[in-house]
Amino acid sequence: MARWEPNARQRLVLAALDLFTEQGYDNTTVIQIAERAGLTKATFFRHFADKREVLFAGQEVHSRLLADGAAAAPDSATPLEAAAAALDALTASFTAEQREFGPRLLTVIAGNPELQERALFKGAALAAALTSALGKRGVPDLTAALAAELAVRAFHRAFENWVDPASQQTFSELARQALDQLRAAAAALG
Amino acid sequence: MARWEPNARQRLVLAALDLFTEQGYDNTTVIQIAERAGLTKATFFRHFADKREVLFAGQEVHSRLLADGAAAAPDSATPLEAAAAALDALTASFTAEQREFGPRLLTVIAGNPELQERALFKGAALAAALTSALGKRGVPDLTAALAAELAVRAFHRAFENWVDPASQQTFSELARQALDQLRAAAAALG
């Protein structure tokens, strides 16, 4: 049995972000991340499949939160209202630590095409989960896919604003504002 | 100077698709692709950066076609009408051979998460190019981004239909129909 290591997961994320920022993502190994965190390689692999996944952990949990949030919206909710409820459920799960890590996370991803591809894949997975949940509410496929697309875009835009230390609004407020802006933009498509 | 090898690029694409289909993407090497095509590894690397790029060649050309097509739309065109003109320009560039390769291409990509990520990245690159071109027409950022997103979705949906041997319609007709369906779906967002 592995011994209990307090906050191992969070320590690994912090160590990885520090090392990626200091010496670059490509130049950083799993062993270095574990050492920086004061943990073993075996502990690393109990938490993450590889070094890339340190940055994208939570995809399954986030997908479930979106799906459950949409499912719990009132029957009378429009597709976008159900998507907004899904965003509420997702944004409510984020912690002050995730906000603090945010800027470094965004910088590391922006600097590496492989990570940008992985981020797109996570976005697509979140959108697929929400599309499916909206479909179960009776929303037609294409409309569900677009509502989910707008919600994931709103989530990303709101995350960038929320992790800005100068931001005064909650993640949920920022996400709903972003979704409103996207709805207005959709109405102007012609 | 490299000697001229007739249709080298197309032979490499065909050989790669055959090998990926027969023995799997991960199990296929660049050397095998070159051998199957009756060419050298050096010739392969004159055409493609690596084996993955055999499947995604054309990203820059496709981006440029979309941008030029949007730029050439009448001044009076709405954002979606300009996006439709961009799709016309892009779909017109596709050949009967690309249609023939299509089903194998889609099958190989669907079977490999790394290729799915790369396909998402190509879609994002196309959308970014079209977003930028629409921005130059004075379309506001968010509306441009959504129009581009709908256009790229329409392109992918239409490609899947067009490569179906049973399909009777042109790629352009299918893309415009898909864009119309997406517009209708956007109108139902609530």
Q: How large a portion of the residues of chain A is in β-strands, by DSSP E?
A: under 5%
Mean pLDDT of chain A: 94
Main β-sheet of chain A, in a few words?
none
Runs of chain A with pLDDT <50, length 5+? Answer: none
User: What's the total helix number of chain A?
Assistant: 9
Q: Summarize the largest interface: chains and residue counts.
A: A-B, 30 and 30 residues
| Straight-line N-to-C gap of chain A | 61 Å
Number of strands of chain A: 0
Name given to the CATH homologous superfamily of the largest domain in chain A: Tetracycline Repressor, domain 2
What is the CATH architecture term of the largest domain in chain A? Orthogonal Bundle
Whole-number total of structural domains of chain A: 2
**Which fold name corresponds to the CATH topology of the largest domain in chain A?**
Tetracycline Repressor, domain 2
Oligomer class? homodimer
Give the overall shape of chain A, derived from the CA principal axes.
elongated
The sequence of SSEs of chain A as H and E is HHHHHHHHH
Radius of gyration of chain A: 18 Å
Supply the CATH class of the largest domain in chain A: Mainly Alpha
